[in-house]
């Protein structure tokens, strides 16, 4: 849905000022994901009294004027705003792309590889149905291969590689383009004498725009931005930095609320082996829901995500099969008195889950007039049922087939649980067409869950200080192969992830052209967040995730 007006940061700050407090990540302590509140002073660059809303408004006005008049560079400006993570111009951007789409020969005016690829990518990102056949013009008529002159055009190769990431199943031309451009970009990287060019190629290959969070590389893009034909460098850099500072304040305020809520439960003190990671849990909704106005949705979603991690730890490092069966039965009953049948150490977790989810359901009722608690509690029952099935597999030492493991793993990933909560928090599925919304959202959730489960298992990494039982799709798959090597298996899993992204793209196109646009965007961002969460290095550290969090919350 297009934004009808620009909301100035001072309007956000009236609700999100941090009263004399700052928060820091305790990165050097034994747990890097604990939030600490600094009692000295807030690090706010733009506060309610000092923010220059007049200058901000002038910058917005300048960019709007450029979007209306710089017709030859409109697509470049749109791309720049998106790479900087500036979301104030959705209405103008949608208008520009709609006009591009409505032109009967919208690609004919673009002659070089980069411009055609950019036009295609921006239209596909906006979910316009443009054909990939436009790229056939780059093939040689004689042998159907791509021309040598294209292999030497770095900007063209980057554009093609970025465009190829928006393919759906059956678009073989985009697969060819991805392979061709990826191969030649790697060759260009090996022979590049330019540090800037090498950096851009590396980032493109590792983090193509469509499959990464816009804010993940925004700082690098802003700092290295040179302007568009001599215009916009200072204007866009200043606007992006002001916008970032306000967003940071909002996120800090939300993180404090999540951290205080988590501390109030007392679970980390009672169960010492639980992951105590409120910062990490909040990073998920911070990435998924980028609209600054969605503070309450982000906070509530962080609470939901925290219990996915907590219950996972209960199943992995605490309970016996008998105890876990009792816990699963209690969640299926969803009665407070059911906790009396549980071991002492499980009671606080069950009570906290019961109260938190009921509270989320009631808060949704107060806003939208319908209470989804029945469906919310059912998804927690499904999650615990999947956790219990895995626990029994690993306790028996008899691993299932890869297909059976993955089918259950889609549920135990927690994605369905999280996205169902988000669906209701966004106001969908509560009044009319409830079954249609649930069916459409579940299909998207399954594809995102597949990406998460395979990425998680591909890493084969144990989370911080975890020593429990946990399975792996790779382990199950190799068990069913007579002569399968770990290298071939990993290649197979990477290909599965690439194929599932095509399913995500197709479902995203369908949902965006339906009535679940904001849900689909957030689901897509969840899939984009997965590589950051599970990209462990050799020291079992998630360096890229820490960089992202430091940028979004601390300007480090």
From TrEMBL:
Domain annotation Terpene synthase metal-binding: ranges: 264-503
Pathway noted in the entry: Secondary metabolite biosynthesis; terpenoid biosynthesis
InterPro entries per record: Isoprenoid_synthase_dom_sf (IPR008949), Terpene_cyclase-like_1_C (IPR034741), Terpene_synth_N (IPR001906), Terpene_synth_N_sf (IPR036965), Terpene_synthase-like (IPR050148), Terpene_synthase_metal-bd (IPR005630), Terpenoid_cyclase/PrenylTrfase (IPR008930)
Residues passing through the membrane, by range: none
SUPFAM superfamilies linked to this entry: Terpenoid cyclases/Protein prenyltransferases, Terpenoid synthases
Keywords noted in UniProt: Lyase, Magnesium, Metal-binding
Residues of the Terpene synthase N-terminal domain: 67-195
Superkingdom as given in the UniProt entry: Eukaryota
Cofactor(s) the protein requires to work: Mg(2+)
UniProt-recorded name of the protein: Linalool synthase
Origin species: Solanum tuberosum
Upper classification of the organism: Eukaryota, Viridiplantae, Streptophyta, Embryophyta, Tracheophyta
